[in-house]
Design brief:
This protein is of the alpha+beta class and 169 residues long. The chain has two domains: 66 residues, Winged helix-like DNA-binding domain superfamily/Winged helix DNA-binding domain (Arc Repressor Mutant, subunit A, Orthogonal Bundle); 94 residues, no CATH class. It is 49% helix and 25% strand. The strands form two sheets. Strands 1-3-2 form a three-stranded antiparallel sheet. A hairpin with a 2-residue loop joins strand 5 and strand 6. Helix 1 runs antiparallel to helix 4 and helix 6 runs antiparallel to helix 7. The longest helix is centred in the last third of the chain and has 22 residues. The chain is elongated. The chain starts with a helix and ends with a helix.
Length: 169
């Protein structure tokens, strides 16, 4: 994990990863994207390779670099709501929460699965509706469209999530 975070901390390496997300490239092609000399590009590629974020393959006289992002990948975050935030929002007292996000393959698509553990039942409806609206807005953005007004969607989703919350526990 430390190697991945170290690799992602550098803007040039993030630029390389963004370029490789669009397809494979040679070191020379990647060098045109960065304001550094070619040996610097090679050092960045080595760091990315050691972190497991890219791979290289030989094709004739060229080395071809490709991004590696093979699902499933998992991220786990443990948080605690602050006294200040819950008092301002008028919600429940602070609680420890573990959020797990996993990328999984689903046929030819990648699915993002988000699981939240430790949440009080009173928070399930607003969190569930909020997460769904965020996911729908992300899909809208990725499709190149502008998200619409979320209030009507909230009014539609909140009762369904509230009903779901009553069946849990």
């Amino acid at each position: 994990m430390e190697a991945i975070l170290r690799a992602l901390a550098d803007e040039s390496r993030r630029t390389v990863l963004e370029a490789l997300a669009n397809g494979e490239a040679t070191a020379g092609e990647l060098a045109t994207l960065l304001p550094i000399a070619r040996p610097g590009v090679s050092r960045h590629l080595r760091v990315l390779r050691e972190a497991g974020l890219v791979e290289v393959r030989q094709q004739a006289q060229q080395r071809i670099w490709v991004e590696v992002c093979e699902p499933p990948r998992r991220l786990q975050v443990v948080t605690r709501e602050t006294d200040e935030s819950w008092q301002q929002g008028g919600g429940v007292a602070p609680f420890d929460q573990t959020t797990e996000a996993t990328l999984a393959t689903d046929g030819g698509k990648t699915t993002l699965v988000i699981e939240i553990h430790g949440m009080p039942l009173a928070k399930i409806a607003p969190y569930g509706a909020g997460w769904q609206i965020h996911a729908e807005n992300l899909a809208t953005y990725l499709a190149g469209r502008e998200p619409g007004d979320t209030k009507p969607r909230w009014d539609e989703l909140a009762p369904a999530y509230q009903e779901l919350a009553t069946t849990i526990g």
